Amino acid sequence: METGWRKVARDSDLVEGIPLLAKADEEGIYLVRLGGVVRALGHECPHHHDPLEKGALIGGEVVCPGHFARLDARDGKLIAPPALDDLPTYPVKIEAGDVWVGQIVKPRRPVPAEGDPRTFLLIGAGAAGNAAAETLRREGFGGRILLVTAEEDGPYDRPELSKGFITGKTKPEWIPLRGPKFYADQRIEVLTGRRVTGLDTRKKVALFASGEPLAFDRALLATGGTPRKLAIPGAEADCCFSLRSLADARAIAAAASQASRALIIGAGFIGMELASALIERGLGVTVVAPDPLPFARIVGERVASLLKTRHEQAGVVFHLGRTPTRITGGRGAKKVVLSDGTSLDANFVVLGIGIQPAVEYLSGTDFLQSGGVPVDGRLATSHPDIFAAGDIAIVPGADGEAERIEHWVVAERQGRHAARSMLGAAVAYDECPFFWTKQAGLSLKCVGITRGFDEIVYRGDVEGGRFLAGYFRKGRLRAAVTAGMVGACIAAERALRAGAPVSRRQFADEGFDIRSAL
Hints:
By secondary structure, the protein is of the alpha/beta class. It is 19% helix and 32% strand.
């Protein structure tokens, strides 16, 4: 036997389509037989290193259990974010009924070609913009790529800001999506602190706040959103924060380091993730929101009640069904007066009342509709050389309804799709929306669109925190939310993406494998 080969399993241990976690010198290896051929891959998702054997394998796609990244089980290639890299692979051979693997083959990043005179301008360096830049290079584009952001920071992991960054468990050096060397090697020019203020669509020129123009051949609009403001006295005073950017997160973390109590206005997912993180830091947290139950319109009353109860058990104090009328006080000593006259004290206040699309620079164009940018299935705007993705894009869905979705993974997947369309692909975008939230000791995953449901069907134990909820409208499955039943949720996502029918009875039956509907 040649050196470097290691025996990891018996050939008879492998069943077609069922993955096996093997070990070679304490190194985890994801083994699977597909079409009679044994494949060997790295077993950790390149995103947050979740163990892939705890996810699912459906139709040759390995799906991460953490954040539903999809990778090709044949060659480890990335299919869908939030992972940004391919998996490592191993050569495989079978001798005398034993499965042997060779030395690891790490994924190689593409070497940018040269000679293409075109300039592709990506306005916005968040999830969509960064994914588009990387995909352009993956697809062989050799022209100039300009990734422009109004922020002083380059592309970073925005979802982590309301979670590990605030608790301190996520180190600051982990927040950037890539290091400077990556962008230099890929010849992606990242321009920070550069705000685009206008777009001349006829000349294909972007105008910057500093006044200089920048000509482009094709452009992607991916400017995301800006926090909504609260129109009450004192809402813009010192120690009243919003959480959207890395700069915002740094300011909140600095305030938390000198505080004992925080008050959050709004009970959306970002606000409640932040509440959970601040509780973990040891602060007292009060949440004020107009709804009688947080998230009920999104996930239904049972799941919303579970989340509220878990937050209360952790120490969060709610003042629901009320709104703030004014904020007074100076640095470190804020007072928030509510609509019922209640006065609440805190060292600082965070406004978490959602975002609005950042589209001011598109004033004067014909791109805007209902506050966003409508696109076709290729994610092209009304201009054939200008595309849009992420929070600002109004994208046609499989059912004919156009949706604007404010989720990180959705933006990344749209960015990848838009990049391919910029290079001439004519395939329609058909991803199923996904988002996750981690709060009060629960990790929830959501696939599809819950909005507009008229019935919810459950399997598992909602109150116990292990369940799968199916959101139906007119008898059709539209979305699923899970805590602790990831495999079934991954199968539901595939069913939604394929348009496969799943009945209410089937969904409620824990013994029914949703994959059989495909």
